[in-house]
Design goal:
Length: about 280
């Protein structure tokens, strides 16, 4: 990406020539062949169409997801039209065969993650001695991994075990795409009090963290729209459980007394009274 680049309106003619206008309201260009006056009349950082039918357009605050400009075209015969020119092809205006307009909106440095593609990508910075290099590792469709050969950067050499000649070694970085479904998901959970860590554990389904009379369960997990993993926790208190356990113990003890100990005690008492 070009640093500090400005948005421009690119005008392409039928003969293959091109010219650009800085994307500012009021900027205009008079073309001779065809004879057309091109003027930028409105700029949208994030264009959105509201309502049904023709609807109306608004500039929605937030990241530039749908940048666009409105261009007024005035021809020699007095005909005047307006055309929406979108930077990302999400909304199209009318297009002439002899005049093509394109809104060039510089992207931010880097890339926003899109989990819907299912294609992992990573930009890495490689440093070795005085050399540094930025590379993108991108897996494409029908590929399970991407790789980058480090030999050119590292210039590693080793002796061939079969002779005295040196040869370069294959040293690759791999970015692999996960295959199949996730069978187990683990979350690192930390409990802090006044900035001090008092408990921590890697939890999973049916493997909660217990602290301070509470159980922290992994309720659910997934990915948000930006590809970031999240964990939803379920917290349950064990206060009062001791009384429940005591109650169960008394109930079980009562059943043993009623159905085992009492009949046995009665049996021996009866035999003793009968002189057996």
């Amino acid at each position: 990406y070009v640093k500090d680049a400005k948005p421009v309106l690119e005008i392409s003619l039928a003969d293959g020539s091109k010219t650009t206008l800085t994307a500012e309201v009021g900027q205009e260009w008079l073309l001779k062949d065809p004879q057309v006056r091109v003027e930028i009349v409105q700029i949208f950082t994030n264009l959105k169409v509201m309502g049904t039918g023709k609807g109306h357009v608004v500039n929605v605050p937030g990241p530039p997801k749908n940048p666009a400009v409105v261009v007024r075209l005035e021809r020699a015969d007095g005909e005047e039209t307006h055309q929406y020119v979108n930077a990302r092809g999400l909304f199209h205006g009318q297009e002439d065969d002899d005049l093509k307009l394109r809104y060039v909106f510089p992207e931010p440095e880097g890339a926003e993650p899109d989990p819907n593609t299912g294609l992992p990508a990573m930009e890495i910075l490689l440093k070795h001695k005085e050399t540094s290099q930025k590379v993108w590792m991108i897996t494409h469709k029908n590929q399970t991994r991407a790789w980058f050969n480090l030999v050119d950067l590292l210039a590693l050499e080793e002796k061939d075990v079969h002779g005295e000649h040196a040869h370069q070694r294959q040293v690759n970085l791999y970015l692999a795409k996960m295959q199949g479904q996730i069978k187990d998901y683990k979350s690192d959970l930390i409990v802090q009090e006044e900035g001090r860590t008092v408990a921590e554990k890697t939890i999973e389904v049916n493997g909660p963290l217990h602290y301070g009379g509470y159980h922290f369960y992994q309720s659910s997990y997934g990915q948000d729209q930006k590809g970031r993993w999240y964990t939803a926790l379920a917290v349950s208190s064990d206060s009062g459980l001791s009384l429940v356990y005591i109650g169960f113990a008394l109930m079980v003890g009562g059943m043993f007394w009623l159905f085992w100990f009492k009949p046995i005690l009665s049996y021996f008492t009866t035999r003793r009274d009968n002189g057996d």
